[in-house]
Amino acid sequence: MLGAAGAGAAGYWLSKRSRKPELAAAPLVSRNLSVPADERFPVMAVATGGQVAETVRLAVRALGGIHRFVSRGDVVVVKPNAAWDRTPEQAANTNPELVGELVRLCLEAGARKVLVADVPVNDAQSTYVRSGIGAATRGAGGELIYPEERLFREVNLQGEVLTEWPVLQPFLEADKLINVPVAKHHSLTRVTLGLKNLYGVIGGQRHRLHQRIHESLADLAGFLRPTLTVMDCWRVLLRNGPSGGSLADVAVRRTIAVSTDPVAADAWAAATIWGLPAASLPYLGLAAARGIGTPDYEKVKTQFLTA
């Protein structure tokens, strides 16, 4: 009885002097995976025609070749737009042939492994199958990453809107990132291109960000700077994006643009496909103000090629 009383007193004493453990703050993270500028090569290469594989290889070669961007032993993440349970012909997702060819290029450069990752809007299993991206990834020797809850890490992106947010782990650990958006219309931002494609690196309630969508896009661009942006303009969703559905909204352009400047790549696609000036897309100006790139795509060195 005495022992029980003593234990109770000790417990009371400890409870009065103990503090509940404070939750650790999310680590501050900023990832710049870009490569140094090289005046020997253009900032952007636009290749048209041929087949997907030869067209993307031609564009990458013009920028100095894949070895400029991927080193032996690198872990590379290829980030397509794989958001929707749609077929390749509907142009709501990145062309699977393009994804597969980029995986092959990275492995040829000596990458230790190539991961293909996204956080889809629709069910990931269905999306990867119907889009063809799953089969293309595996067929090229890449590894498909599913957005399982265990793979998200809470980090502080240090943005104006995006502060503490769950990020899919491969994007926090990769040596290189190749961002591969498909050029599409978007009902909110007018277009969805490279910077909008970075929405697919985060989880959580992303719809909350729509209230300040342009600031959110600039935050993402500042947090994660890709090694290379490969703009898929093979099939373009001109209207009723981002999910589309009707083949009447799709135009076949057979074009792929590759750039080391993600802002210039977005500005080029918006102007070339939809006739939209950079000033009509506020996120481009916000990203440029942060030193991420230039919306004056006409002033950057560009090479146009035909496969």
What topology emerges from the helices and strands here?
Blueprint: H1 2-17, E1 31-32, E2 44-48, H2 52-62, E3 75-80, H3 96-108, E4 113-117, H4 124-130, H5 133-140, E5 143-145, E6 152-156, E7 164-168, H6 170-173, E8 176-180, E9 182-186, E10 190-192, H7 194-197, H8 213-223, E11 224-225, E12 228-237, E13 250-259, H9 262-274, H10 282-289, E14 302-306
Broad structural category: alpha/beta
Whole-number radius of gyration?
22 Å
CATH architectural label: 3-Layer(aba) Sandwich
Residues in helices, as a percent range: 25-40%
Task: Write down the CATH class.
Answer: Alpha Beta
Account of the protein in words:
With 307 residues, this protein is of the alpha/beta class. It has one domain (40-306): LarA, N-terminal domain (Rossmann fold). Helix content is 31%, strand content 23%. It has 10 helices and 14 strands. The chain has helices at residues 2-17, 52-62, 96-108, 124-130, 133-140, 170-173, 194-197, 213-223, 262-274, 282-289; strands at residues 31-32, 44-48, 75-80, 113-117, 143-145, 152-156, 164-168, 176-180, 182-186, 190-192, 224-225, 228-237, 250-259, 302-306. Strands 2, 3, 4, 5, 8, 9, 10, 12, 13 and 14 form a 10-stranded mixed beta sheet that branches. It has a two-stranded parallel ribbon with strand order 1-11. A hairpin with a 7-residue loop joins β6 and β7 (164-168). The radius of gyration is 22 Å and the shape is globular. It starts with a helix and ends with a strand. Residues 1-23 have low confidence and may be disordered.
